Amino acid sequence: MAFSPANRKGTINGIIFVAIFAIAATAISKLGPVHALGISPLVIGIVLGIFYANTLHSKIPAAWGSGITFSGKKILRFAIVVYGFRITFQQIMDVGLEGFLVSLIMLSTTFILGTYVGQKFFGMDRDTSMLTASGASVCGAAAVLATEPVLKAEDYKTAVAVSMVVLFGTISMFLYPVLYAAIIKPATGFLHLDPQAFGIYVGGTIHEVAQVVAVPASIPGAPQDMANTAVIVKMTRVIMIAPLLIVLGIYLSMQAKKSGTHNGEKVKLVIPWFAVYFILVAGFNSLHLIPQNIVDIINQIDTFLLTMAMTALGMGTIFSKFKGLGLAPIYTAFTMFVWLVVGGFIVTKTITSIL
Fold it and tell me: Whole-model pTM?
């Protein structure tokens, strides 16, 4: 046990050690050039954690490992629950049916596509494929973190998935403003999207929340309506992580029973209760019983906790474990990236035209 008398001191020291890295990641994310790129402290945290894992790992007492593991597991789940304070059901209703349908279609198709091509075409294992797919289909690094406990995946697989989110999410962040200015805005007919429709497109297809915020901010003269719509649609995708994980838990239990990997034991339904609690917190937040300034503080604390969790996962990532993966994660993530950019545009244009 992490906090048993024998392990308590090492666990506390390990948690403090991770927190120091998270503080550094938060500080770096606020630096001018880094902040301008919209790089979240979560991403910086895993980079710092990976650096530690492959350089200074042997210099730290082994007893601290329980604290690092605690940060990457228990703190992670708690932070995902608290993430519900970023969302209200009213925000989702404001977007309307258009935003909801685009979010639902892009999430489900991207997750299925990434999981399938990762395993069938590029030979990746199930966990890495699903983690990579969850990051692209839902909300980037936070979705990868939320999916990891359901799959019980190894830390290095989580790091692979996050690295793909960083790579292609960053490309999207620079690509979308160029597409809008050069093609979408001046075009007529099918290639044209009005500002609100473009906001739905951005929110329904870009990986990270920070990247969604950065795109309208990078477009000169972009109306506030575009930015607001993009963020709300993105948050609609974020809240869908809960039903996705519940469905995934049911699927994994059925697969275990079907394949006989339960070794004759009764297969338990894997329900990610933290995802259920996430919905409850979002529902509570929708009642607006807590002053907004307090909610803002809660969200800042939650971002720090997520940064700690990401850093801890990075600390469990040793490069030698990546041998054998090759370019499969990049090919898989690129396939989903193409679908998000091209398929997402078609889905957005079709739905906004009909409704």
Answer: 0.74
Ramachandran bin of 219, using left for φ above 0, alpha for ψ from -120 to 50, beta for the remaining angles: beta
Spans in the chain with pLDDT lower than 70? 1-2, 38, 260-272, 275, 321-325
CA distance readout (Å), 225 to 127, 198, 281: 38, 10, 27
User: What distance in Å separates the CA atoms of residue 2 and residue 11, rounded to the nearest whole number?
Assistant: 6
Closest by alpha carbon to 117, among 344, 330, 340, 343?
330
Contacting residues for 222 by C-beta, under 8 A, at least 6 apart: 195, 216
Separation of alpha carbons 275 and 77, rounded Å: 9
Evaluate whether 167 touches 208 at the Cβ level (below 8 Å): no
Query: How far is C-alpha 162 from the chain's CA centre?
Result: 8
CB-based contact 279:239 (threshold 8 Å) = yes
CB 197 within 8 A of CB 236: no
Rounded to whole angstroms, the Cα distance separating 278 from 179 reads: 35
